[in-house]
Design goal:
Oligomer: single chain
Number of helices: 1
Radius of gyration: 18 Å
Strand content: over 45%
Shape: globular
């Protein structure tokens, strides 16, 4: 497999419905981090030979990204509005273009759990968002590869 450069990765949000998505590429993203973790379930018994034994638990995911603070930008405004209104946003975090066969990533309906506006002297105003999967009736988060 060839290496993938970070600048070729993409963050999309769905501006339509889950069943018939319209993936809007968020172009003003600077940094993006997709974090996964997995819980542990302790299944230690007296037959464990003196060792703690575990099985896989629930997975957790979060999407953290920095975007140029621009209230005229429809992508920024949609995400900011979702934070303030407590509404869901469906994201697709991809390692390439959503229309390219072989691109893969996480598709998840999320709630925006964090917003930090960075006002660093001498730099552009940036907003850091954190999004986490949200219980919804459409679908659970999925790792998807474009066919």
């Amino acid at each position: 497999m060839a290496h993938v450069l970070s600048e070729n990765a993409k963050l999309y949000y769905n501006s339509a419905t889950y069943a018939s998505p319209t993936w809007d590429l968020i172009t003003e993203v600077k940094d993006l981090t997709l974090t996964f973790s997995k819980g542990e379930v302790d299944v230690t018994t007296r037959a464990s030979g003196g060792y703690t034994e575990i099985v896989d638990g629930l997975k957790e995911a979060s999407i953290e990204f920095s975007i140029l603070y621009n209230t005229s930008d429809t992508d920024f405004s949609a995400i900011l509005d979702a934070f303030h209104a407590n509404t869901a946003v469906e994201f697709f975090v991809m390692d390439g273009l959503v229309a390219t066969s072989g691109s893969e990533g996480l598709r998840a309906t999320c709630t925006i759990t964090g917003l930090t506006v960075n006002q660093v002297l001498g730099e552009a105003l940036m907003a850091d968002f954190t999004a986490k999967p949200l219980k919804n009736s459409d679908a659970a988060p999925t790792w998807t590869t474009i066919a």
